[in-house]
UniProtKB/TrEMBL annotation:
Low complexity: compositionally biased ranges: 128-179
Name listed for the protein in its UniProt record: Chromosomal replication initiator protein DnaA
InterPro entries recorded: AAA+_ATPase, Chromosome_initiator_DnaA-like, DnaA_C, DnaA_dom, P-loop_NTPase, Trp_repressor/repl_initiator
Family: Belongs to the DnaA family.
CDD domains: AAA, Bac_DnaA_C
Domain named Chromosomal replication initiator DnaA C-terminal: residues: 494-563
Origin superkingdom: Bacteria
Length: 596
């Protein structure tokens, strides 16, 4: 088994492990058990189950009692922290280390003879003192029998008990002190009185009682040796809990504010993130929304990293809404809600990605609302992200949507062409073996959509083509081998998708735009849907009018002029609480179309 101690990756993994363990067991228990005389390390070896390479997190402690208690009390937490820091195949092991002990000096045969003579003289002297002691004891007993029987019996019983205790104490001390090779020995009396810990203690080895002599060597250099306990602590470190590990803060994966590429599409959200780092308690909660691939998760990970490093926050929790929901469900059936609430309300910062996953989950939304209220009242930074703004997420209660909108709501649009070009430049520089002409990258950036993940796929494609052709690929070769990827990034809206987006924006039924109703609540959204269908699809006026209630093509033609007048005058569309300006309505519908 090889050790990885000393590398930067090892130190970062150890820090992630310590932080994850600190968050799971709490500050008090972590300070009590894992800060005094405990060291963390990593080793890479083969798993005993399948023989595959596995990373072991080593917890080194100074005694078997501490090791046994750690293994029994924190088995689940240690295993979960190891998996978070080093991957799902990671394991942990507890090693017991004793204090460094000097090896005995090497003695010559002459020194051995002198030691034996000294031991013989000491034995004779001890026998003489024992004989004198026995005679004195007999005299004392004879004198004691002349006194009253009851009082003498009581004193004799006390003396015998005291002598018995002293003898037992000396015997226990001699047995503990003999467990070593030389120098100063350690006593394990406290561990032996624990019936659980005593069963895990390693057995004594007779070879430790032997003296080491060398007839040819006369050096007396002392070299420290480090002894490890055998078997006991390792056996007690096996996980005993059957519950699954609870979710914890996700690693940031190198996503920082410096590596975030800004442009007109995300400049406002990036400025809000910088403000959240400078003054965490001002713009909280911070809500980021936009279609997939616009950098929401990148900003959340970057903010978590800044909170930890720049603001020195110890408990920064970054997770997805799915992990939050799963943790809530597991806590209801096992540890209970008090432990769940303590885990998420005693934090320095909370960041939740994909909040739209919480929609229509009544119990989870209620706990999320109370958690947000508690942290916001304490001035703790809160950051959320979703594909839509809080007010547009159907199934999100009004209280939760209002609380998440009370800080700052920042949109992220699909990446514009210039931002895609800069992103491609950076990805090609880090992923490709050869350079790439900027003219080619600019042409490719015009073909792909606004999804940053698609840009990563194109960069990988260019790198693969470079390895295959041993040169820079042409635009035709990129189209030939990456045509599916280029087409998949451009999702064209359809009449049905536009109808669905308009209905969701104005809160109408699924087929409300096809009805014969002429009320303002229905007719004006229908007119807007016809306008957007003409703008985003290649459908003819007749096809558009037929789709929206089998109307004549003149209705679709007049819809264009009506919406243009609404945009110029700022007239609200719809009725009641769902009314909004034409410009705002178009922006919301197009945002839903990008989300899909």
């Amino acid at each position: 088994m090889s050790s990885t101690q000393g590398s930067i990756e090892t130190q970062e993994a150890i820090e992630h492990f310590a932080e994850a363990l600190h968050q799971r067991i709490g500050a008090d228990r972590y300070r009590l058990w894992f800060t005094h005389g405990v060291q963390f390390d990593l080793e890479v070896g083969d798993s005993p189950d399948d023989g595959e390479p596995t990373v072991f997190v080593i917890i080194r402690t100074s005694g078997p009692f501490a090791a046994q208690r750690m293994g029994n009390s924190f088995a689940t937490e240690l295993r979960a922290a190891a998996m978070i820091a080093c991957g799902e195949r990671a394991r942990y092991r507890i090693d017991v280390e004793e204090a460094e002990q000097p090896t005995p000096k090497k003695r010559t045969r002459a020194a051995k003879v002198a030691a034996e003579k000294k031991a013989t003289t000491k034995q004779k002297s001890t026998r003489g003192r024992a004989a004198a002691s026995r005679s004195t004891t007999k005299t004392a007993r004879a004198a004691g029998r002349s006194s009253s029987g009851r009082s003498s019996s009581g004193r004799r019983g006390s003396a015998n008990s005291l002598a018995s205790l002293l003898a037992q104490s000396n015997a226990a001390g001699n047995g503990a002190s003999s467990n070593g090779k030389g120098g100063r020995k350690r006593s394990r009396g406290r561990v032996e009185h624990d019936p659980v810990a005593a069963a895990e203690l390693p057995g004594e080895d007779d070879e430790h009682e032997e003296d080491y002599y060398d007839e040819d060597e006369f050096e007396s250099d002392e070299q420290p040796v480090r002894a490890k306990s055998r078997g006991g602590a390792k056996k007690s470190a096996q996980p005993s809990a059957a519950l699954p590990p609870l979710p914890d803060s996700q690693p940031t994966g190198g996503r920082t504010l410096d590596s975030f590429i800004t442009g007109p599409c995300n400049e406002f959200a990036f400025s809000a993130a910088m403000m959240a780092v400078a003054t965490p308690s001002v713009a909280t909660p911070l809500f980021l929304h936009g279609p997939t691939g616009t950098g929401k998760s990148h900003l959340l990970a970057a903010l978590a990293n800044e909170f930890r490093t720049r603001r020195r926050m110890r408990r920064v929790v970054l997770l997805t809404a799915e992990q939050f929901t799963n943790d809530f469900v597991v806590s209801v059936g096992s540890t209970g809600l008090p432990a769940f609430r303590k885990r998420y309300r005693d934090v320095d910062a909370l960041l939740i990605d994909d909040v739209h996953f919480l929609a229509a989950k009544t119990a989870t939304l209620r706990e999320a609302l109370y958690t947000v209220e508690t942290l916001a009242s304490a001035g703790k930074p809160l950051v959320f992200s979703a594909n839509l703004p809080p007010s547009d997420i159907r199934g999100l209660t009004g209280e939760v949507a209002g609380r998440m909108s009370s800080g700052l709501v920042c949109p992220l649009a699909a990446l514009d062409q210039q931002t895609r070009f800069q992103l491609l430049q950076r990805m090609v520089a880090t992923r490709c073996v050869l350079g790439c002409d900027n003219a080619l990258l600019e042409e490719v950036s015009e073909l792909i959509g606004g999804d940053a993940r698609a840009a990563g796929g194109i960069a990988n494609l260019i790198g693969m083509l470079q390895r295959m052709f041993r040169r820079e690929p042409t635009i035709d070769e990129i189209r030939r081998y990456g045509g599916d990827l280029l087409r998949s990034t451009q999702v064209a809206p359809t009449l049905r998708s536009i109808e669905k987006a308009v209905c969701e924006t104005f809160g109408l039924e699924g087929d409300g735009l096809r009805s014969k109703a002429q009320t303002r609540r229905v007719s004006e959204p229908r007119t807007l849907a016809m306008y957007l269908a003409r703008q985003h699809t290649g459908s003819a006026f007749t096809e558009i009018a037929k789709h929206f209630g089998r109307r004549s093509h003149s209705n679709a033609i007049s819809a264009i002029s009506k919406v243009e007048n609404w945009l110029a005058s700022g007239k609200p569309i719809g009725a009641g609480d769902g009314a909004m300006s034409a410009q705002d309505a178009i922006a919301r519908v197009e945002s839903r179309l990008r989300v899909g």
